[in-house]
Amino acid sequence: MFVSELDRPWTDTPFAFQGFLVRTPAHIEALRKYCRTVFIDAERGKDVEEARRAASGPAAGAAPEFAIRGSTAYRELETVESEFARAHEVHSHCAADVAELFAEVQAGRILEAKRARDAVARMTGSLVRNPNALMLLARLAHKGQGLQERAINSSIYLIAFGRFLQLSRDDLELLGLVGLLQDIGKLELPDALLGKRGHLAPAEFKVAKTHVQHSIEILRATPGLPARLAELAALHHEHQDGTGYPERLSAGEIGLFGSMAAIVDAFDAMTMPRSYAAQLTPSQAFGVLYRLRGTAYYGALVEQFCQCIGVYPVGSAVELNTGEIGIVISQNPQRRLKPRVMVVLDAAGLPARPHKLLDLMKEPKAFADEPHHIRRTLEYGRVQVEPREFFL
Predict the structure, then answer these.
(1) What is the mean pLDDT of residues 167-177?
(2) When comparing pLDDT for 198 and 356, which is higher?
(3) Which residues contact 177 (CB under 8 A, 6 or more apart)?
(4) What domains appear along the chain, each with residue ranges and CATH number?
(5) Is the pLDDT of residue 264 over 60?
(6) What phi and psi values does residue 309 have, to the nearest 5 degrees?
(7) What is the pTM of this model?
(8) How many other CB atoms sit within 10 Å of the CB of residue 372?
(9) Alpha helices in 272-362 (DSSP H)
């Protein structure tokens, strides 16, 4: 059934979407915990969706026919605490590498493929050992909305997403290169266009879209990169219903990697400070992705991405029922609504010393008759935390 309304505001619950399809017993358990009554939309249940698809036949934006899960099983080889120091080193090296790579392009020189591949291999190694540490570090190290930071974030998200989908190690590294280099063509655009506040005029947007072709040309001119990279880097603005750019591809034409890249690019853009629109919380960004599934984004992958990142993504700031503010430091895969949280501000908004670590799956007591739980998520960057305060 499709739950369309609750008996309380959605913001008082941990649900990322205002309206969702009940698919598992865990959904029912969560609804029961927060609500006495829910309202369903009888026209949007799974049986109705299937009947409509059967009656209408294939359509633009229909689910593409490709497998979205691989067969490589990954185990967490390190805890987030033990991996964090290595992740800090990896992130620092990658930031320096990406700065050099982008400087090369701006100076008109050929991109150094080995430096890019080595950076991605290091990030992949950390994310394979533990998928939380590097994502946490990337968000704690957040400084703005520069191209370099977005490139690293997109690379990390795509590698982590591929790991969640059990894709091969080679595929993870290819996805990492896609995320790192798919927007490198923006270096060829005017600075005034990239930094403009507010929406672009139609003529300006036409120029902005040329960054895809610039990226293709830069990557094709770079020896030592995977043969498919330029082709894959051109896909993250294509939409499932054929309304994207530059080629107006649809569904299966975009493929798995392109569909993943589109979701990651949109999520990272929405949750970072933007000159042209308000920054969204992770839950708000999930809501946008969910509403646009089947049109802009492949619906099955949107759901998988939400499961991968979690309702409360690693690195996000959350407000607890005690009024304290914490940072999500790792997921509990069995119960995504109950991550591990490190309290950094007390209820008065003052720095908490020492930091208090809460594993919400163990339901630590906040009050005599109530365990700690998350009240809401906050925008990335809302709480500034020095990475060295975490496990270093």
Answers:
(1) 98
(2) 356
(3) 116, 117, 120, 155, 225, 226, 229
(4) 2-56 (no CATH), 80-309 (1.10.3210.10), 317-389 (no CATH)
(5) yes
(6) -80, -30
(7) 0.82
(8) 22
(9) 282-291, 299-309
